[in-house]
Amino acid sequence: MRAIVKDSIGVFSPQGFLDASSAQSLLTVEDIEATEHLKVDMVLVSLKKVIFFNRNGLDTFVKMLNKVRHSAQCIVGFCDVDHKKYEAINKFYGEEMNFSIFKSREVASLFASSFKNQQKNVLLYSDDKSQRSAIAIELHDNGHNPIVATSKTDFEEKRANGNYDVVIFDTYLGQIGQHVATRVTGNAIIYTVSSFLDNEIGNSFNIAYHNNSLNVGFRLFIFDAYKVVSMNIHALNFFAKLASSAAEYNATICFVGMSFEKTPQQFKETLEDAGILFFEQMDDILGNKELLHDLGASTAGAAKNKRTLNKVLVTELPRFIDATVLTIEMMTSAKAQKEAAQIEQICIKNKEEKIASSIGFYGDIDGMVILVFPTAIAQKACELLIGEKATDIELILDSLAELVNILGGKVKSLLADENVNVNITLPRTYATIDDLLEVTTNRKGVQVDLKFDDDKFLFFLTR
Amino acid sequence: MITKEKIDQYIEQIPPSPKALQETLHFLNIGELTKAAKVAETDPALRSYLKAIVNKPIYGFRNEVKEISQIFGILGVSGSQQAVYNYMIHLLSPSKWKLFELNKSSFDDLQAKLSTQWQRILEHLSIEDKDIESSITLLPASIIVTEALFNDKIEDVTLLRKAKELDYNTILLRLCKMDLFDICAVIAKTWDMPDIISQIIYAASGTRPVADKQIDLLGKWMHMLLFYELSQATFVQAGLNDFIEFEIQYVTEIYDDFATLMDIQ
């Protein structure tokens, strides 16, 4: 069984009855290894569809979670637990519990770095005073507004009378990892760093992902450093180097919420000299559209990025088109066809009512695949993932991101058949064509018009 | 991935039930066990299947049961009908499984386990009805249908399920507006199985509201039983644990009763 990853949270969803033998059959050594290599903020085991479990059944998952927490430094635990299950897990593990328990995935996501879930009004209650404080601090650090109920009665009263986005109870916060979490918001990438920054940052920071993000057009990188206690000279050197490599792409690196109480003030000056900007609040950047524009989060046409298609990429073009055609056929059961192909700058005649999604790849070859759909056609292409007629644009964009993610997987597997090894980036979506054109300005690539069921969409392969 | 045409093709290929089976079932229906056994003897494959099934440890007979008349005598009318229906479903199973790590023997084991546990449940519910007893036999057909439709789409399904938590039933329903249980009902119709069997199977999908209280209750028990068996290590390893979605809300009200009956602690 493998975890399904969404918004940087990997979730295992076993079903039915969980005892020692079924749990061991569900989780193989390969599954555990694959989970350790997931670059996610959180790994959870959902108990939503488990009707019975015993300690031996959970032990297999707890061992896996501990291993993952240790190697990937991410938050681990169980989610989707009702009161009975919460009590049972507490009874089984008591003081030994170093994993977390979240009432639901929604509650868990408040502790991950997904920007979508920030600034929520959260009512929380736990019998354990230290848990109440720990949860409140984490929520606050993640940009939420926690309201703490001090007793069961207080909780019931507040719950009945207040209007909260999320209510937290039956939740336990175990050890929080030190993983450098990544999230994408608009055209900015936010990395979350915490605790003590030393030479470990070189290992925990995914430099290949960062470089590829630069290649695919991201220009603003924000380090969410609210939880950083201090930084040493090794980390300072690391960030200074990162800043100089970003400068080649005309990209900006910012630190938000970094306190210099326990870090020499001189370090801040050195980093500023290297081009890094410092802000007190995340909202100072993300809430200020003009500043965002100035920092490059809405433009992406940097000189270094204007790379041309090379022979290797053009040679592999049929495999990219095959992957797209096969993915659309798989998602719709309709026959997809190629219509016309040309090498030129991306050209979209009618920008209205269209959305797009892209995914980057890097490794033996690198580049980016972009799909542009009329909104209604995107909805049709994603019907298998959405399941119902959805009009919510956020839901359609989310599903389109899942579709290009599947496409990325298909590309990866088709290229692997030819001994070309690539990794794929997180998918990115564009609610308007203008957003997309900001990233692809002046880029040449192969544009292919495709259609399924007489519905046309556009494929673009660029570097 | 899967089209309605592919489903139609699959349905067209379902063979009519062999004449010997039809006659055996006819005699069982009118309670003529001896005549039914005589007809069953003429079909060597049925004879060997029944012998293999009844001598599985789960049936708990100390000595080997060899004669069909003996087997039918032990199983009684309803048990014999159930065994013959199990054989019919077994005929649909592939010679080589690709999607699920099963083989003839492990599939037969699953059939036998479901059948004996279902009998235990019906005794607990004080229900004596040979058609209701036989309804469990159609349930494993959903596994065979999944194997048949998806066995050449393993890579696609793996890619899809990496991105989204989707079971085979939902994939089929969303792509073809027809699910595994609809196909099971078509099989039941092709083989002239009593209507109540399809109705219970529909209820056991856990996804369709059922007005009839008894069928709804039986559907809950059958849904729970299926996931109880699919949580056994052999079937988890076979990849069956999440082939359809476990509708936990649907079965919660009978869980305590089920746990007591199955001695789950």
What can you see in these coordinates?
The complex is a heterodimer of chains A (463) and B (265). Chain A is 40% helix and 27% strand. Mean pLDDT of chain A is 83; it is low at 300-305. Chain A is α/β, with parallel strands linked by helices. The model of chain B has no long low-confidence stretch (mean pLDDT 87). Chain B has helices spanning 4-12, 19-29, 33-41, 44-54, 68-92, 104-124, 130-135, 141-150, 154-163, 168-176, 180-190, 195-204, 213-230, 233-237, 248-251, 255-261. In chain B, helix 6 packs across helix 13 (213-230), helix 8 packs across helix 11 (180-190) and helix 11 (180-190) runs antiparallel to helix 12 (195-204). Chain B has one domain: Orthogonal Bundle (Hypothetical protein af1432), CATH 1.10.3210. Chain B contains 16 helices and no strands. The interface between A and B is large, with 38 and 38 residues.
